[in-house]
Amino acid sequence: MGSTFSYTSLCFIVVTIVSFVVAAASAEEFKVGDAVGWREPSANETDLYNHWASNKKFHVGDKLRFEYRNDSVIKVHKWEFYHCNRTHPVSSAKDGNRTFNLNRVGPVYFTSGDPEHCKKGQRLSVEVLPLHPISQSPPQPRPISVAPSPAPLSYSAAAASSVPAAVILAVVVSVIVTVAAASA
Question: Hey, what's the torsion of the CAs at 134, 137, 57, 65, to 10 degrees?
Answer without folding.
Answer: 0
